[in-house]
């Protein structure tokens, strides 16, 4: 089933020059980029995006990090795009969970600065795409 998912290449990915590598892996997998934008997230978008984490101890630091500089937001489409992108990204903890061959497994060390984000369900994808790309047509 064709799905869409939200992809973020977070500020650490932009700062480290890994955006090209991340996009290359998305395209090599066969997924299609339907929207792509370099921007610095506002506090409002960051808070909306991470609303489910607002009671976590790392929330303040996470908002500071995600708004700290330019990131790349994208919408990616394809068969089972949500799971496919999460497979490419690897587990949230880049050392304990992400395996070599994944983006986090190959390039990240810290759980917060883990380079990329992907929606975790169709409901999250719809919410996150509407938040980051409100004008995007279905
Ligand atoms: P992401 O997939 O964008 O979803 C939530 C983000 O919170 C996660 O990636 C990390 O950047 C961050 N995060 C999750 N767990 C922790 C943690 N234990 N400590 C710090 N940051 C975390």
From TrEMBL:
<comment type="similarity">
    <text>Belongs to the NDK family.</text>
</comment>
<feature type="binding site">
    <location>
        <position position="114"/>
    </location>
    <ligand>
        <name>ATP</name>
    </ligand>
</feature>
<keyword id="KW-0597">Phosphoprotein</keyword>
<keyword id="KW-0418">Kinase</keyword>
<feature type="binding site">
    <location>
        <position position="104"/>
    </location>
    <ligand>
        <name>ATP</name>
    </ligand>
</feature>
<feature type="binding site">
    <location>
        <position position="86"/>
    </location>
    <ligand>
        <name>ATP</name>
    </ligand>
</feature>
<comment type="subunit">
    <text>Homotetramer.</text>
</comment>
<keyword id="KW-0547">Nucleotide-binding</keyword>
<dbReference type="InterPro" id="IPR001564">
    <property type="entry name" value="Nucleoside_diP_kinase"/>
</dbReference>
<dbReference type="InterPro" id="IPR034907">
    <property type="entry name" value="NDK-like_dom"/>
</dbReference>
<feature type="binding site">
    <location>
        <position position="92"/>
    </location>
    <ligand>
        <name>ATP</name>
    </ligand>
</feature>
<comment type="subunit">
    <text>Homohexamer.</text>
</comment>
<feature type="domain" description="Nucleoside diphosphate kinase-like">
    <location>
        <begin position="2"/>
        <end position="137"/>
    </location>
</feature>
<dbReference type="InterPro" id="IPR036850">
    <property type="entry name" value="NDK-like_dom_sf"/>
</dbReference>
<dbReference type="GO" id="GO:0005737">
    <property type="term" value="C:cytoplasm"/>
</dbReference>
<keyword id="KW-0546">Nucleotide metabolism</keyword>
<dbReference type="Pfam" id="PF00334">
    <property type="entry name" value="NDK"/>
</dbReference>
<keyword id="KW-0067">ATP-binding</keyword>
<dbReference type="GO" id="GO:0006183">
    <property type="term" value="P:GTP biosynthetic process"/>
</dbReference>
<keyword id="KW-0479">Metal-binding</keyword>
<feature type="active site" description="Pros-phosphohistidine intermediate">
    <location>
        <position position="117"/>
    </location>
</feature>
<feature type="binding site">
    <location>
        <position position="58"/>
    </location>
    <ligand>
        <name>ATP</name>
    </ligand>
</feature>
<keyword id="KW-0808">Transferase</keyword>
<dbReference type="GO" id="GO:0004550">
    <property type="term" value="F:nucleoside diphosphate kinase activity"/>
</dbReference>
<comment type="function">
    <text>Major role in the synthesis of nucleoside triphosphates other than ATP. The ATP gamma phosphate is transferred to the NDP beta phosphate via a ping-pong mechanism, using a phosphorylated active-site intermediate.</text>
</comment>
<dbReference type="GO" id="GO:0006241">
    <property type="term" value="P:CTP biosynthetic process"/>
</dbReference>
<dbReference type="InterPro" id="IPR023005">
    <property type="entry name" value="Nucleoside_diP_kinase_AS"/>
</dbReference>
<dbReference type="GO" id="GO:0006228">
    <property type="term" value="P:UTP biosynthetic process"/>
</dbReference>
<dbReference type="GO" id="GO:0005524">
    <property type="term" value="F:ATP binding"/>
</dbReference>
<feature type="binding site">
    <location>
        <position position="10"/>
    </location>
    <ligand>
        <name>ATP</name>
    </ligand>
</feature>
<protein>
    <recommendedName>
        <fullName>Nucleoside diphosphate kinase</fullName>
        <ecNumber>2.7.4.6</ecNumber>
    </recommendedName>
</protein>
<keyword id="KW-0460">Magnesium</keyword>
<dbReference type="GO" id="GO:0046872">
    <property type="term" value="F:metal ion binding"/>
</dbReference>
<keyword id="KW-0963">Cytoplasm</keyword>
């Amino acid at each position: 089933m064709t799905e869409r998912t939200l992809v973020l290449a977070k500020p650490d990915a932009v700062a480290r020059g890994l955006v090209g590598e991340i996009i290359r892996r998305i395209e090599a997998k066969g997924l299609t980029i339907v929207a792509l934008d370099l921007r610095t997230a506002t506090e409002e978008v960051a808070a909306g995006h991470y609303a489910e984490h607002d009671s976590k101890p790392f929330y303040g630091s996470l908002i500071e990090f995600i708004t700290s500089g330019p990131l790349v937001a994208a919408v990616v489409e394809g068969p089972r795009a949500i799971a496919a992108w999460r497979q490419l990204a690897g587990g949230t903890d880049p050392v304990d969970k992400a395996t070599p061959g994944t983006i986090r497994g190959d390039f990240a060390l810290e759980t917060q600065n883990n380079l990329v984000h992907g929606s975790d369900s169709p409901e999250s994808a719809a919410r996150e795409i509407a938040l980051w790309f409100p004008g995007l047509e279905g």
